[in-house]
Amino acid sequence: MTAAPRPSTPPQPPTPLGAMDRYRVWAPSADAVAIRVDGTVHTMAPAEEGWFELSDPAPVAGARYAFRLDDGELWLPDPRSLSQPDGVHAASEVVDAQALAPSPGWEGRDLRGAVLYELHVGTFAPGPDGAGGTLDTAIERLDALVELGVDAVELMPLATFPGERGWGYDGAGLYAVHSAYGGPEALARFVHAAHDRGLAVVLDVVHNHLGPSGNYLGMFGPYFTDRHETPWGEAVNLDQPGSRQVRDFLLGSARQWLVELGLDGLRLDAVHELKDDSSPHFLAELAGAVAAWQEETGRPLTLIAESDRNQPATVTPTGAGGLGMDMQWADDVHHAVHAWATGERAGYYADFGDADVLAAVLPGIFLHAGTYSSFRGRVWGAPVDPASPDYDGHSFVTFLQDHDQVGNRAAGDRIHHGISSGAHAAAIALILLGPGTPMLFQGEEWAASTPFAFFTDHDDELGPLVSAGRAEEFAAMGWSAEVPDPQQRSTFVGSQLRWEERTEGEHGRMLEWYRELIALRRAHEALRSGDLAATRVEVLAEETVLMHRGELSVLAHRGPGALAAADGRVLHAEEVLGSFGPLRHGQDGGVHLDGAGAAVLRGARLSG
Q1: Catalytic: 538?
Q2: Is 507 assigned to a binding site?
Q3: Does 407 belong to an annotated binding site?
Q4: The CATH number of the domain where 552 resides is what?
Q5: Which residues contact 432 (CB under 8 A, 6 or more apart)?
Q6: Which residue of 142, 144, 397, 511 shows the fewest CB atoms closer than 10 Å?
Q7: Which of the residue ranges 74-83, 274-283, 570-579, 582-591 would you say has the lowest mean pLDDT?
Q8: Per its record, what are the GO molecular function terms (predicted)?
Q9: Structural domain total, the chain
């Protein structure tokens, strides 16, 4: 059975932020629903399509409320709660909508081709003595991002999750803001502060599953279905009976962030796990709704998908038969640059690493594009068309580091912890000056000394299982060193950025290189162009590539030795616009690097 057709007008959330004049809950699985408001129990009246309502007393800011289904013993939080101040199992809180109004005067910005910056609130700007960071402490560091040249901040998930610390991908309340980060009012302050500085704000949201603790949705109604399976169990119900209300539940959450709170975009986690055999696909329906909200708000709104499928259809407009996402993460670009810079070949890096692969992926985005993937053991993906009118290089988010590629390593070590600063500089030059939409991960701009490990704060029942599972996972991979225990608070504290180091020694040198690259990107149209057809990569040696971007070129040499001659020819350039590493001009008139490094050149050519 398929879901109901998408309505011509995108659905509004059942209780729009700023208009919560009554308590409402969708509970089609219940015959009766009671609500407890500040200790007083009331019977809710049944309404249409499985909804229950209560108008008196009217919701007031600060009120605590919870629902009881039929004769059950549990008092359950509101699936659409904006605030869970006492955690995922406790009562919900009514929020003063006036405190959450969008930034006045903010006209938004197009994020395709912008420089994005991914951060985790708890570790980005920590408090004193190892205290977790909040949205308010993060505000204090926004000026540093402006100075760096960042255009938009991408927040890892804020949806309320168990405990105080975690990555946020085990959220249990898709409308609420995690209380340890300051709750929804703090998010509103952060958005205003970012917009005041010209920074857009993107939020990472998880629609494909809920965490194992605090997930009460299945008690209310058919939010999940066994028709489809995901790595987390039953799939979110997008195409079975009751799916129309479930889809509206997700659309309402998206509208809350983008319209009611005034954020600029959403990054959608693992969209390949949104199992939907109906038409239109949920992502296409979301794209249509967001297009209508753009018209309503007068601001550009952006949808960024994380997808494992390597399918250009993800970023193809719905009118051309695609899913309508504005951008998608491009993991193959990361894998190609990482494996080339580090020499790693284990796991999904097996097909990557050679300079020829790097040269193909930088302009082609996908390595596995209707070709065989040894890691998956099958043919995978479809090719990107550099001449497509439906998408370009800016449709693909590229990165050297992100939370997954760092945090899912056994110790959470970053790429620069295992390579020279020159190789790091070469790798990031290919990302920041390539045809994609570049994204940085917190702290990489100064080669942060701290890792970003996997950490959790589950209860005494679930926590030990997570710790044991993490250790067993890496033991099976042959990892012999100790794996940080995700449940230990020290793992979380050890992942917090140390801002005092950012201007010291090699940290400060790398920070200046990142600033220089971003400034060059802004100054030269050729370096910020998304034209894939205008991007060409020459392999000078296995350690050296020359990426041509229109009239400019990016020389990337991983070292460790000197820049080798290409077939006896010498690299010449009319002008060096910027460089990192031991660059010199030889007596032959050529450009030489005596070790790992990078340079941005005008008029680059090989001769001799």
Answers
A1: no
A2: no
A3: yes
A4: 2.60.40
A5: 115, 438, 514, 517, 518, 521
A6: 144
A7: 582-591
A8: 4-alpha-D-(1->4)-alpha-D-glucanotrehalose trehalohydrolase activity
A9: 2
